[in-house]
Design goal:
Layout: E1 6-11, H1 23-34, E2 40-45, E3 64-67, H2 74-88, E4 93-96, E5 109-114, H3 118-127, H4 145-164, E6 167-170, H5 173-182, E7 190-192, H6 207-216, E8 223-227, H7 236-248, E9 254-258, H8 264-273, E10 282-284, H9 292-298, E11 301-304, H10 313-320, E12 325-328, H11 333-337, E13 342-344, H12 349-359, H13 362-376, H14 381-397
Parallel strand pairs: 1-2, 1-4, 2-3, 4-5, 5-6, 6-7, 8-9, 8-11, 9-10, 11-12, 12-13
């Protein structure tokens, strides 16, 4: 254990945008929790042109400040200005929380949190016959020159980041498998530290608040909810097709899609082609934040048929709210959910429809609610922060 406070730097250049998805949400929640550990002093490194968004100014305080090394381009900021600032400020440990962002020039100890290697796992599954189609169908860069050059640049910097890191935090055992088996990282360099749901998600949302949110968005009394991006690998196409089949089988729930990114117009066209009517059968809400806990509470279930999440925030958020989940058994979702939800193969529409129909029954929902709440209690940002701080301490003691 170091005999003084540990100076920890964070690559916070992505926090200029308050649209929290995945690694940004992780970074914000982790930093908030780390601020409560009195052995740490935090510095959030941002670019002058992209300072910390006002929504995240609560991250700053007596033991957390912002620093803005100056550089003309992002790559120079990361690889030249940043390490100079780390040396000048005598930072002990620098933590990049978003798959990349470590300088090749070592100044102190480096920690990298890695969330996923989608290109590698999708290509692996396609090669093994576990997924149909080509990598481009799942959002992986194509074999065109532009796609090849984009992937080559990505691979170069990924190797740099993985090699620069003294310790790599994987957000799930599935993510560790990607790192070790598909990216060739030494197993002893990787530590799994799961994430948690934000404190705004709770089982104690007043019924009046649930009704208020439902009326605000014009939602029916009964609906399923999907929360996340509309990227190809999220398989919202498959979710819409499953909804259409479930409606034909007599299900009355509508589908609420709360998210952003991807080709939303194409999804709207697909929904119409499947006979799903907007504002009756399917609702595209876009990005939702403060109303999300209430929308979870009002839902019959959360449904997600993603091809391979590393750590699915919305699934844990829903379980924390007591909302049953019907989710893909691929990727890191099964290790999070275990027996607290219904796990389905997103390739099998009959199985998926059957699970959705079963969760509309009151007894099944009651059982899954209890299981989900129990399972969600195993995760907390305090625990995640303490385990992360232990990584910093071990690095400085060796």
């Amino acid at each position: 254990m170091p005999d003084r406070r540990i100076k920890v730097g964070f690559n916070a250049r992505y926090l200029h945008d308050d649209n929290l998805r995945g690694f940004n949400r992780y970074a914000v929640c982790l930093i908030r929790a780390l601020r409560n550990i009195d052995t740490l002093d935090l510095t959030l490194f941002t670019e002058p042109a992209r300072p910390l968004h006002p929504a995240f100014h609560d991250l700053l305080g007596p033991n957390a400040r912002e620093a803005t090394p100056s550089a003309s381009r992002a790559v120079f900021w990361e690889q030249v200005a940043l390490p100079k600032a780390l040396r000048r400020m005598d930072v002990d440990v620098f933590h990049a929380p978003a798959d990349g962002g470590l300088p090749g020039w070592k100044q102190g100890r480096y920690v990298l949190t890695y969330h996923r290697a989608l290109d590698k796992s999708v290509s692996h599954w396609i090669a093994n016959g576990d997924l149909p189609g080509a990598p481009g169908d799942y959002g992986v860069p194509s074999s065109s020159f532009r796609g090849w050059s984009e992937q080559a640049r990505h691979n170069f910097f990924r190797r740099l980041y993985l090699q620069s890191a003294d310790t790599i935090i994987a957000v799930s055992e599935f993510c560790k498998w990607e790192l070790v088996e598909l990216l060739g990282v030494r197993e002893d360099k990787v530590q799994v530290i799961p994430l948690a749901a934000d404190e705004m998600f709770t089982a104690d949302v007043p019924p009046a608040r649930v009704t208020e949110a439902r009326l605000k968005y014009g939602l029916p009394d009964r609906y399923l909810i999907y929360v996340g991006g509309f990227d190809a690998w999220k398989n919202v196409d498959g979710l819409l097709r499953t909804l259409a089949e479930a409606r034909l089988a007599g299900m009355t729930e509508a589908l609420v899609l709360a998210g952003s990114g991807g080709d939303v117009d194409r999804l709207r066209v697909l929904a119409s082609t499947l006979g799903l009517v907007e504002q009756r059968d399917v609702f595209f809400l876009g990005r939702v934040h403060e109303d999300l806990p209430a929308l979870y509470h009002g839902a019959t279930a959360l449904v997600s048929l993603s091809w391979g999440e590393s750590f699915p925030f919305p699934v844990l958020e829903a379980m924390t709210c007591g909302t049953p989940v019907v989710v893909s058994k691929r990727g890191g979702t099964p290790e999070l959910v275990r027996d607290a939800g219904l796990l389905v193969d997103p390739r099998n529409i009959t199985e998926t429809v059957g699970a959705i129909l079963s969760v509309t029954g009151e007894s099944v929902r009651r059982d899954l609610r209890a299981r989900g709440l129990s399972r969600a209690r195993a995760y907390s940002w305090r625990q995640t922060a303490e385990r992360t701080a232990s990584v910093y301490e071990r690095l400085l003691c060796h």
